């Protein structure tokens, strides 16, 4: 055998010895892993949406959806860390607002015709949010103040 062949044999034998290790160390490692194993799909909610796979329930679609696939991503104009997804019902009669902030509930707004033409989605309430398509971009306003606008990079 040449030097190259002997070197390869020694390298493989060394790797085998290192991989075997001690049996007691192996048992501890397996036990620790068993305590933290989570089965994918075991986190279904009451609508059978699997959160670990990115699904959430949409009331206006009556289905489990992935927000980034079905929604329009919006960014807060005053805080780059806050986002919102708009999800429209199949007939566009309603839009559901999914907020990124903890503890903020989804809102469902109804479509209404505007006197000048076009549509806005809101609820008949002075404090409601208004969703509109302006200059080809979706916007969300509240009391006349722009609070969210469509993420141009996500288009």
Describe this structure in words.
The chain has helices spanning 3-20, 23-36, 67-70, and strands at 56-58, 63-65, 72-76, 83-88, 94-99, 107-113, 119-122, 129-134, 137-142, 145-150. With 155 residues, it is α+β, with helices and mostly antiparallel strands. It has 2 domains: 3-36, no CATH class; 71-154, Beta Barrel (Lipocalin). The strands form 2 sheets. An 8-stranded antiparallel beta sheet has the order 7-6-5-4-3-10-9-8. The termini are far apart.
What is this structure's SSE topology?
Elements: H1 3-20, H2 23-36, E1 56-58, E2 63-65, H3 67-70, E3 72-76, E4 83-88, E5 94-99, E6 107-113, E7 119-122, E8 129-134, E9 137-142, E10 145-150
Antiparallel strand pairs: 1-2, 3-4, 3-10, 4-5, 5-6, 6-7, 8-9, 9-10
Structural class: alpha+beta
Low-confidence stretches: 22-26
Number of domains: 2
- Give me the CATH fold name of the largest domain: Lipocalin
Helical residue percent band: 10-25%
Helix-strand pattern, N to C?
HHEEHEEEEEEEE
Describe the largest sheet: 8 strands, antiparallel
Q: Average pLDDT across residues?
A: 81
Residue fraction in strands: 25-35%
Determine the N-to-C terminus distance: 63 Å
The CATH architecture assignment of the largest domain turns out to be Beta Barrel
Number of helices: 3
